[in-house]
C-alpha cells in the first residue's frame, strides 16, 4: 500500500480550523454505502492498458470494509469504468484529446471485454450493486445512475475506495460531498501510481471534502454504531 499521507501543512491547517482531520464522530450503517471505484481488470491485471500495481495491494482492505458494512445494514456498490459507444460519443473531448492509447482503452473498457470485468479477488456478494460509469466521477450528469440508486435506498453517507486516487476516486468523492453526502475517503483502500499523487489527493480531500481515515478507523466507526 502507499507509504504516503496527508501533507503536514494541510493537517496542521485543518486542525487549526476544525480541531482535527476527522469530521464525523459517528455514522448510521443503514444509511451508508461503500462505493468501490473501478477495481476492474483493466486497472488491476498485469499488462493491462491502465495497470495500477498498487491497486492490487488494497483489495484486502476493500473487502474488509464491505464485510463489516453489509451485516450492519449498509450496501456495497461497485462502479465500472466504461468506454462504450455512448461514452465515446458524448465525451469526445476526453477520448479525442486525453486518451493516449484510444483504441486499446476503448477495447479494454467496453462491456463484455475482460478489462471491463471486476477484479476476481473482490468479495462480491449477490446483494451488491454494479454501476456502469461513463465519466471519471460517478455523479456528474451523463455518467451513471448512482445518485438515483442511493436516494432510493435512503443513503446519505459514502465510503470511497478504489483506483485511481486522484482521478475517478477523487472526482466521485468531490461531487458526492457537494451533493450533500457525508463522505469518507480511505487512505489505505485507495490507490494510484505514485505516493506523491496519492498524498496530494488525501490532502485535497482532507482540506474541504471528506473525512480521511484509514481502514481500521473506518471499521471501528462502523462497529461503534
Explain this structure to me?
This protein is an alpha/beta fold and 225 residues long. It has one domain (8-224): Rossmann fold (3-Layer(aba) Sandwich). The protein has ten helices and six strands; from the N terminus they run H-E-H-H-E-H-H-H-E-H-E-H-E-H-E-H. It has a six-stranded parallel sheet with strand order 3-2-1-4-5-6, sandwiched between helices. Helix 9 (195-208) links the parallel strand 5 (182-191) and strand 6 (211-213). Helix 1 (8-18) runs parallel beside helix 9 (195-208) and helix 3 (59-69) runs parallel beside helix 10 (215-224). The longest helix has 14 residues, at 165-178. It is globular and about 50 Å long. The two termini are 28 Å apart.
Number of domains: 1
- Name the shape in a single word: globular
Q: Oligomeric status of the shown chains? A: single chain
The profile of the biggest β sheet is: 6 strands, parallel
What structural category do the secondary elements indicate? alpha/beta
CATH superfamily, by name, is Isochorismatase-like
CATH class: Alpha Beta
Strand order of the largest sheet: 3-2-1-4-5-6
Strand composition percent = 15-25%
Mean pLDDT: 97
pLDDT under 50 segments (min length 5)? Answer: none
Q: If classified by CATH, what would the architecture be?
A: 3-Layer(aba) Sandwich
Amino acid at each position: 500500500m502507499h507509504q504516503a499521507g496527508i501533507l503536514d501543512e494541510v493537517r496542521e491547517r485543518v486542525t487549526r480550523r476544525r480541531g482535527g482531520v476527522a469530521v464525523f464522530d459517528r455514522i448510521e450503517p443503514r444509511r451508508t454505502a461503500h462505493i468501490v471505484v473501478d477495481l476492474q481488470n483493466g486497472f488491476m491485471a498485469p499488462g493491462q492498458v491502465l495497470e495500477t500495481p498498487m491497486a492490487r495491494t488494497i483489495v484486502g482492505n476493500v473487502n474488509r470494509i464491505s464485510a463489516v458494512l453489509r451485516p450492519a445494514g449498509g450496501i456495497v456498490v461497485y462502479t465500472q469504468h466504461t468506454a462504450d459507444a455512448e461514452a465515446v460519443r458524448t465525451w469526445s473531448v476526453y477520448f479525442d484529446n486525453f486518451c493516449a492509447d484510444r483504441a486499446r482503452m476503448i477495447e479494454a473498457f467496453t462491456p463484455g471485454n475482460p478489462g471491463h470485468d471486476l477484479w476476481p479477488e473482490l468479495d462480491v456478494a449477490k446483494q451488491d450493486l454494479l454501476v456502469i460509469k461513463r465519466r471519471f466521477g460517478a455523479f456528474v450528469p451523463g455518467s451513471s445512475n448512482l445518485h438515483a440508486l442511493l436516494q432510493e435506498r435512503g443513503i446519505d453517507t459514502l465510503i470511497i475506495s478504489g483506483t485511481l486516487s486522484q482521478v475517478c476516486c477523487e472526482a466521485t468523492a468531490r461531487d458526492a460531498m457537494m451533493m450533500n453526502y457525508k463522505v469518507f475517503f480511505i487512505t489505505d483502500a485507495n490507490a494510484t501510481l505514485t505516493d506523491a499523487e496519492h498524498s496530494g489527493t488525501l490532502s485535497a480531500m482532507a482540506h474541504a471534502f471528506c473525512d480521511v481515515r484509514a481502514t481500521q478507523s473506518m471499521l471501528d466507526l462502523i462497529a461503534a454504531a
